[in-house]
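Quick one - first record:
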Amino acid sequence: MTKETLLMQYQSECLSALKSVANIHKPFEKAFMDTMKLFMAIPDRINFLQLGRYGCFSEQTYRNLFEHETFDWFAFNGSIISKHLTGKRKAIAIWKSWASVSLTSTTMNA
């Protein structure tokens, strides 16, 4: 498979999961799909400045989109996982850097 076909497959799976999760408006869908494409293309850490530099929208558009829009990431990831994992039991891992400071300080000291 070429890189282009893999990227197209990734985008189609993200889009189908996005549409199955919630009733979203078109501007969010366009910016979300562009962001998913950029997550595959930009190495290392990604910030809004890089999204604005390499994406189709401005930095402020990405920033506003993810700060003001409520999106159910759990359901989105669950939709993608359910297509590819067939067992009854599934596990979800949470990256520690995304946990709040108070959460990490209480769990680490316990």
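second record:
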Amino acid sequence: MNQGMHRTTHHAREHSRRRAATAGLALALAGALLAGCTPAEPEDTPGEENGIMHDIHASPEQSAVEGWSPQIAQEASDVATNAATAYARPDLEQSQWLAGLRPYLSADAQRTFQNVSNLNITATTVTSTEDPVKGRSPAIATVSVHTNTDSLDFLLSRADGEWVVEKITSAK
């Protein structure tokens, strides 16, 4: 084999090895990202008006919600507290845990939490709930709930007069 052909073959093999290594690294990173048991933590402070927890836009039904009031804030607080109580149950079988949490979750959150293992949850008791923080619309709120092991931030949305949990993140 002539020297030019040998270089081309060697170059092609080296290129294939690099592509395989890059693909392997990408798969490993994707696996690591998908291995988490809870949704990703926000980079911004959840209570900030422009933080990631409020980076959700109101639907037409949510836009029709009247202004923020003490009653609406109390309803948001109650839903977050009840959802946190249902969430903090690592002692239950997975299907029981999800059945207890499901009534508080939006349709999107229900799909997300089907892939979450409650065995990795350390909290077992709700200790206190902070006042809700209104989002960009009165139909969006964040509520911090403290447990015996950490704090959880609940992103809630409101449509048809009912608050539902869109996302739960650990507030470390």
